[in-house]
Amino acid sequence: MGSFTRGKNDLWLYNRIFKANYVRDFPDHLSFNIGLKYWYQNPADNLVFQTGKGERLSSITTSEISLGLRYAPYEQIFMGSENRHTIKSKYPIFSMQAAYGAKGVLGSGYNYLSLGANIYKRFYLSQLGYSDITLLGGSVLGRVPFPLLSILPANQTYLYDKSAYNSMNFLEFVSDHYIGLDITHAFGGFLLNKVPLIKHLKLREFVSGKIIYGGLRAQNNPFLHPDLFRFPSSSSGSQSTFPLGNAPYAEVGLGIGNILKVLRVDVIKRIGYLNHPGVSPIGLRFTIGTEL
């Protein structure tokens, strides 16, 4: 189902990445990673790298050194064939990342510092179920074209993505500073288990909300600096990429899970920026699998 997308997607950005990371875990559940990254990006289909002066570039190259810190007190994990997964608990998880782009190193064209952090916590509310809450924020310091800004994670498939905005189009929003809040509450059958007949289906109820607020500093605004890349436009010529404005982007959802024990269906309502081309104020998203 992830192969089927809603709307038209003709803005493609290809990435060629070479990276090396050193990761160290400590017994007190503190970990860090140091990384080196060579990042080559080139546009495809209807996406072009073109400045306001009409100059076109076929690609951009950056070289980064990064540092990540993570603290997850009392964390328990189980290992898969390639990845490890956290067993959810009442204890918070703190993460922060910093990446420095060094101009002139291996052909890198830009100096910048990208910062990000998030705090995740699950709150147990007895018979009312539990809430998963994530507070996130980030900033890009430096003068860079839009591919190096924070491109907000969007989802144009029909599969629900917990880490993305499910009513947002790909490449719809960019920002060089932002703060956001994600909330999902699982009732665990508290409501539907009280409905005759339906209670035998053992369905599970979910409500969710995501909101993000940010903006674009004048130094990274291509409308003010013609030497920066123009924001992408669709094949019809209408603008497809926008900076976050004075109002936050938000979406809320209502879901039913444990359908046939493996399916969850969410109705997602988009709030704000409804005048953007190709967006829908409401839609269905699906999840296949069990809730952990």
Would you spell out the secondary-structure blueprint of this structure?
Blueprint: E1 11-25, E2 30-45, E3 49-50, E4 56-57, E5 60-71, E6 77-79, E7 84-86, E8 93-101, E9 112-124, E10 130-141, E11 150-151, E12 173-175, E13 177-186, E14 204-215, E15 242-243, E16 249-259, E17 263-271, E18 282-288
Strand line-up across the major sheet: 1-2-5-8-9-10-13-14-16-17-18
Largest pleated sheet: 11 strands, antiparallel
Let me know the average pLDDT: 93
Report the total helices.
0
Number of strands: 18
Query: Could you give the distance between the termini?
Result: 21 Å
Sum up the overall morphology in one term. Answer: globular
**Poorly predicted ranges (pLDDT <50, ≥5 residues)?**
none
Strand content: over 45%
- Structural class comes to mainly beta
Order of helices and strands: EEEEEEEEEEEEEEEEEE
Helix content: under 10%
Task: Tell me the radius of gyration.
Answer: 21 Å
What report would you give on this structure?
With 292 residues, this protein is an all-beta fold. Helix content is 0%, strand content 49%. The protein has strands spanning 11-25, 30-45, 49-50, 56-57, 60-71, 77-79, 84-86, 93-101, 112-124, 130-141, 150-151, 173-175, 177-186, 204-215, 242-243, 249-259, 263-271, 282-288. The strands form four sheets. Strands 1-2-5-8-9-10-13-14-16-17-18 form an eleven-stranded antiparallel β-sheet, with no helix packed on it. A hairpin with a 4-residue loop joins strand 1 (11-25) and strand 2.
